[in-house]
């Protein structure tokens, strides 16, 4: 089996991967406390205004020119061209990764800095997404998997596990979760995945594919 290349990795096409049932349950537990935005179809407008009503005194030619200018302005403001590439995490990514994870445990105060250090120190598994040839090297996404057994003695992991158990309201689920976090910790990996909101979604499948490949290669060593 070929090994993953180190350093810069360009985007390739892969099939999408779904979350595991365990990760879906954690995501559901974390999202229940957050309000949901209504679907656009559920929103009601009190008045519908047509384009002709907005520009009643203009000729058809003037209205067409106005609409064309408005569309060009929206396109220029909304479209940003960028070439994203995948990189191995490194120490200089600390601030960028920390910003992405600042609300990882909602508003809980915990040892986030140490958590970020662990992500960057793990060289076998993990990827950050940046813009190609960007001098600032801003981090737009990070993904990795951290073994709970390996890092169990770190304060940040103790705080993280306490948070997960606390936000799990169902007793049966909380009990099973406690077993995974403690007794079976050496066989459990924490999937850390965070990105900026407007990151192109087509980047996600290869990110997850690459991460699971790296986990497989790391467990073989």
TrEMBL record:
Q: What InterPro entries does UniProt report for this protein, alphabetically?
A: BCP1_family
Q: Mind telling me which Pfam families this protein's record contains?
A: BCCIP (PF13862)
Q: Where are the transmembrane segments?
A: none
Going by the entry's taxonomy, the superkingdom of the source organism is recorded as Eukaryota
A cellular component annotation (GO) from this entry: nucleus
**In which family does this protein belong, per the annotation?**
Belongs to the BCP1 family.
The protein in question is named Protein BCCIP-like protein
């Amino acid at each position: 089996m070929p090994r993953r290349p180190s350093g810069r990795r360009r985007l390739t096409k892969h099939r999408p991967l779904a979350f595991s049932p365990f990760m879906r349950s954690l995501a559901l537990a974390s999202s229940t406390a957050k309000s949901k935005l209504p679907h656009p179809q559920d929103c009601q407008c009190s008045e519908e205004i047509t384009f002709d009503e907005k520009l009643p005194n203009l000729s058809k030619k003037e209205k067409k020119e106005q609409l064309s200018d408005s569309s060009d302005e929206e396109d220029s403001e909304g479209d940003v061209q960028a070439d994203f590439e995948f990189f191995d995490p490194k120490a200089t990514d600390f601030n960028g990764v920390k910003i992405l994870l600042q609300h990882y445990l909602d508003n809980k105060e915990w040892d986030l800095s140490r958590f970020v250090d662990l992500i960057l120190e793990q060289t076998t598994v993990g990827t950050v997404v940046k813009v190609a040839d960007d001098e600032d090297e801003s981090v737009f996404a990070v993904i990795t998997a951290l073994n709970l057994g390996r890092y169990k003695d770190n304060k940040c992991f103790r705080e993280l596990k306490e948070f997960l158990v606390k936000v799990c309201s169902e007793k049966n689920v909380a009990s099973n979760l406690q077993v995974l976090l403690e007794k079976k910790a050496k066989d459990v990996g924490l999937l850390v995945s965070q990105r900026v909101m407007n990151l192109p979604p087509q980047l996600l499948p290869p990110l997850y594919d690459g991460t699971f490949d790296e986990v497989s290669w790391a467990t073989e060593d």
